[in-house]
């Protein structure tokens, strides 16, 4: 099969890239290995991690359309109370982590709706569930990608003038021989204050296998996981307690803190102010990432809230899942850890009344769309990253370094984002690394490989470091990256120029920035002044 643009990976960046290229009139092939498009928002079941100003600015127009579409879907199809239906910034789950916590399946429906016109016209072909297994190259160009069906013996050879790697782990980089890095760079390489003295390529952030639960009458205890005894007794050196406990390090201070857990608190959803600038929201783990607040819906519609478990105790940092021969084993152990956390919650977790266990907790695999009840895909925080024309480093955006000057402003900005430099415990034994960040820009140079001409990153595989990946890996930034990659492919096809030439030629760069601005991509953070 052939198209103008091939997007491999159907996460948020991949969907945004496919939409952008199809909207521009290009024929597009989009592949995805899991049953749902949307990546971290859907198959990985992670509610949006967003900055404090997301309702006003700091995202592309199409990402805003996705968020509005999610709210509209609830208003059209769900039995909301009149009060919640009138809530302008409706937060269906009233979770504290995000202003728009919601069930993953709703995002799937909205994303499919956004893609539907292009699928119907034949401009967009979506191949699911397919994953890349081989890449053909000719010098510095990718000339073909072979994808294999997940469940049967079926392979398809795909070609396109531009190939976008939107996979969660940068799968096309090793297959194509594109230069890339993994793990922790050294301070000598990057000059970053938080970097180690020596590079640690196998030191990567934890992966997590999320799951959804509610709390209803009855005993819903799952079978005891095979590795439960190990996980119940497991105590990381820096954790301050067993991993399976209510105690863990505070990400920003590393102080050992104890969190609460109260299923179905009778709270008012409209009083939840999900602003991580004011409150990280993880004090009560039930409401932290709640994705359905029963009081948002008419009486009896939901027997319980539904909450999404993406908590410190499910972080799996026993080994990396990239560039190791036993990646599948580690991913299986990560799923075992998550099931062990659930079993601990149901049987041994301390309750406020002095008892133990919450047998009424029920695994909601129907919410995550999986056979085993867990998320379809692991939440991958850190990908392989291209060796780029420009690599974003900590001192570009660190609040401690930049202060009142704000983040570095790039002449080749192609978007904006904001999130603290938020690194979870890692496979090298590191605790949290959490550094204040300034609102930042996305440089085009971070999307251009140093050598390869027609392969573009479209997700977490851009030119960041282990440290700055912690800010650039979140939902709205990934979408922005993917959208710009799709628009860049179209621009280069139309002009007969290379991505490298677009960045290095002032006239072309200005034209491209004008083009993406017209499509609703914000290039700079606003400066607000009186008049």
Rounded to the nearest angstrom, the radius of gyration is 22 Å
Largest sheet, order of strands side by side?
3-2-1-7-22
Mean pLDDT: 97
Task: State the end-to-end distance.
Answer: 57 Å
**Unreliable runs:** none
State the secondary-structure class: alpha+beta
Secondary structure tally: strands? 22
Shape: globular
Instruction: Report the total helices.
Output: 16
β-sheet strand percentage: 15-25%
The helix fraction, in percent, is: 25-40%
The major pleated sheet works out as: 5 strands, parallel
Organism: Micromonospora globbae
Protein name: FAD-dependent oxidoreductase
Blueprint (SSEs and pairs):
Blueprint lengths: L4 E4 L3 H12 L4 E4 L29 H17 L4 H4 L18 H18 L2 E4 L2 E9 L2 E9 L5 E4 L3 E4 L6 H5 L3 E2 L5 H4 L16 E2 L2 E5 L12 H6 L13 E3 L6 E3 L26 H4 L1 E3 L13 E4 L5 E2 L10 H21 L13 E3 L1 H4 L16 E2 L7 H4 L1 H4 L10 E5 L3 E3 L9 E3 L4 E4 L11 E3 L11 H4 L2 H21 L3 H6 L1 H13 L13
Parallel strand pairs: 1-2, 1-7, 2-3, 7-22
Antiparallel strand pairs: 4-5, 5-6, 8-17, 9-15, 10-14, 10-16, 11-12, 13-14, 18-21, 19-20
Question: What does this protein look like?
Answer:
The structure is a single chain. This protein is of the alpha+beta class and 531 residues long. It has helices at 12-23, 61-77, 82-85, 104-121, 172-176, 187-190, 228-233, 285-288, 327-347, 365-368, 394-397, 399-402, 469-472, 475-495, 499-504, 506-518, and strands at residues 5-8, 28-31, 124-127, 130-138, 141-149, 155-158, 162-165, 180-181, 207-208, 211-215, 247-249, 256-258, 290-292, 306-309, 315-316, 361-363, 385-386, 413-417, 421-423, 433-435, 440-443, 455-457. A hairpin with a 5-residue loop joins strand 5 and strand 6 (155-158). Helix 1 (12-23) runs parallel beside helix 14 (475-495) and helix 2 packs across helix 4 (104-121).
